């Protein structure tokens, strides 16, 4: 039978008529079903103390601002969205791109379609010069998709490196983040974690037990407190998702959209810059501790700041805040912890913070009260020289406006590393309590006059005399200023106004650097 005969004898039935209202209704029903998700899976997520991906995006973004991409995409498993909700929205009216892994669908595991959606929003974020926020809650690579899942992770990592220093990247770990997936938060500029529900590690407890015999829980191996206080992977640790995502919004309010835009400024209407409390907060005696956070409260607008890595390397403090409405990054020694010495962890912490601020045009204020580097074989064997060189490199490379304030002691190599004039600080200010020297006066006397002290009838009396003389001649408050290494010795009460004036003078600073592919950071 020919085709013509079929057409003549059995004419085709007319296609059923479809109305636009019907098509719209079907589309709306499908979109609603996708958005609501599987009721049982959602309930299990809530029982774990976790919000769903869409609930998290509602907390993070301005109301009604989320625009989703590829909602109807399916992966190998056949589920819509393939376990990740992706798109863009606004935070305080400013555009950000986001993706939130959906643990209710295949445990949020990453397959080819899942990865392609993440790649898409990352590409859009870079193309538009917008920050990207990743909400991680995933069981890891989808085993059923094999190497395609691994290829998907590689595409994420490559894009993160390409975007580094161009747009801010924020990772939020709200559930498991294991194996290769853990490298994504590690490559981000800032990583948030929530206690009890978030875990991040390369190899899980079962593998650890099988290889080493060591028995650990998921939280003991890679919980939020582990990464917030021991490894330094987590920049911020929170007790719950609500406060965590609120702080993500706060951090975004302090960051520029990209490296070509200035940090967001706000109107400043506080005419009173005198802070007489500063003279009482910091003891004159160089060995008495105090909390550098109290200094930040007096220095910054409204006494507000956001501290990075608060639980890790507490002997140095890194924080964002505003001064006269302008965003600044503050690095300060913390005398309450290890007397404020620099060690391997503190050097790494401060170096990464300095490099971020420099990449995104955020001026740096360095508050110095440092007795030196932490001595000991553990530090030396742990690479104190190499890690200290990271901080030195970061400051030397930084081209943003840089103001140093020496509150009390600044001894030895640690003085140099804490943004001294010799490594490129633009403006160095000092309080009348400053002591800048190779080492403390008494230690210096013990070295320089050891023979005289050994032969003296009363070594203690001679030491006291020599220490007073050394202090008077070489460690007095104006010694560095007389030699041009300090620009001004200021009243502590005038610190806020002096730093603000200095940053205003430096606002249009430009620095030419030699042509090169990139420097070789001592990693």
TrEMBL record:
A family per Pfam: Carboxyl_trans
GO cellular component: acetyl-CoA carboxylase complex
InterPro entries to which the protein is assigned, alphabetical: AccD/PCCB, AcCoA_carboxyl_beta, ClpP/crotonase-like_dom_sf, COA_CT_C, COA_CT_N
Residue ranges occupied by any CoA carboxyltransferase C-terminal domain in the UniProt entry: 270-511
Alphabetic keyword roster: Transferase
Keyword Nucleus belongs to the record: no
Start-end of Basic and acidic residues biased regions: 1-10
Gene3D superfamilies per record: 2-enoyl-CoA Hydratase, Chain A, domain 1 (3.90.226.10)
Name of protein: Acetyl-CoA carboxylase carboxyltransferase component
């Amino acid at each position: 039978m020919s085709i013509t005969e079929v057409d003549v004898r059995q004419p085709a039935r007319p296609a059923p008529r479809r109305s636009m209202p019907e098509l719209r209704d079907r589309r709306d029903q499908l979109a609603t079903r996708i958005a609501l998700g599987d009721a049982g899976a959602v309930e299990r997520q809530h029982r774990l103390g976790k919000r769903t991906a869409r609930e998290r995006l509602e907390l993070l973004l301005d109301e009604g601002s989320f625009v989703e991409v590829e909602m109807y995409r399916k992966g190998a498993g056949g589920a819509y969205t393939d376990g990740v909700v992706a798109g863009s929205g606004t935070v305080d009216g400013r555009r950000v791109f986001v993706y939130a892994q959906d643990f209710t669908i295949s445990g949020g595991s990453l397959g080819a379609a899942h990865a392609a959606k993440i790649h898409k929003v990352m590409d859009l974020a870079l193309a538009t010069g917008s920050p990207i926020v990743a909400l991680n809650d995933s069981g890891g690579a989808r085993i059923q998709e094999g190497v395609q899942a691994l290829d998907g992770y590689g595409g994420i990592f490559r894009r993160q490196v390409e975007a580094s220093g161009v747009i801010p990247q924020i990772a939020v770990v709200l559930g498991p983040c294991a194996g290769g997936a853990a490298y994504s938060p590690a490559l981000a500029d800032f990583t948030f974690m929530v206690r009890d529900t978030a875990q991040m590690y390369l190899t899980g407890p079962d593998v650890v037990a099988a290889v080493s015999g060591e028995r650990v829980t998921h939280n003991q191996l890679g919980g939020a407190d582990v990464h917030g206080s021991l490894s330094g992977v987590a920049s911020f640790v929170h007790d719950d998702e609500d406060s965590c995502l609120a702080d993500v919004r706060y951090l975004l309010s302090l960051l520029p959209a990209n490296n070509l835009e200035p940090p967001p400024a706000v109107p400043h209407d506080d005419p009173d810059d005198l802070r007489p409390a500063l003279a009482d907060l910091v003891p004159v005696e160089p060995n008495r501790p105090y909390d550098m956070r109290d200094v930040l409260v007096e220095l910054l607008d409204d006494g507000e700041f956001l501290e990075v890595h608060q639980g890790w390397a507490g002997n140095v403090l890194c924080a964002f805040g505003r001064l006269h409405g302008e965003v600044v990054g503050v690095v300060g020694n913390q005398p309450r912890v290890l007397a404020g010495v620099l060690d391997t962890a503190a050097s790494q912490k401060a170096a990464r913070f300095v490099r971020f601020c420099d990449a995104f045009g955020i001026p740096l204020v360095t508050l110095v009260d440092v007795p030196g580097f932490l001595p000991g074989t553990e530090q030396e064997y742990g690479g104190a020289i190499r890690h200290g060189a990271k901080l030195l490199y970061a400051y030397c490379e930084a081209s943003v406006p840089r103001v140093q304030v020496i509150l009390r002691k600044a001894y030895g190599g640690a003085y140099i590393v804490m943004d001294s004039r010799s490594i490129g600080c633009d403006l160095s200010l000092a309080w009348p309590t400053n002591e800048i020297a190779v080492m403390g006066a008494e230690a210096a006397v013990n070295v320089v006059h050891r023979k005289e002290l050994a032969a003296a009838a009363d070594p203690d009396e001679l030491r006291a005399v020599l220490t007073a003389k050394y202090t008077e001649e070489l460690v007095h408050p104006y010694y560095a200023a007389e030699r041009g290494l300090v620009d001004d010795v200021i009243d502590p009460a005038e610190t806020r106004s002096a730093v603000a004036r200095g940053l205003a003078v430096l606002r249009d600073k430009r620095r030419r650097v030699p042509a090169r592919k990139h420097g070789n950071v001592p990693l």
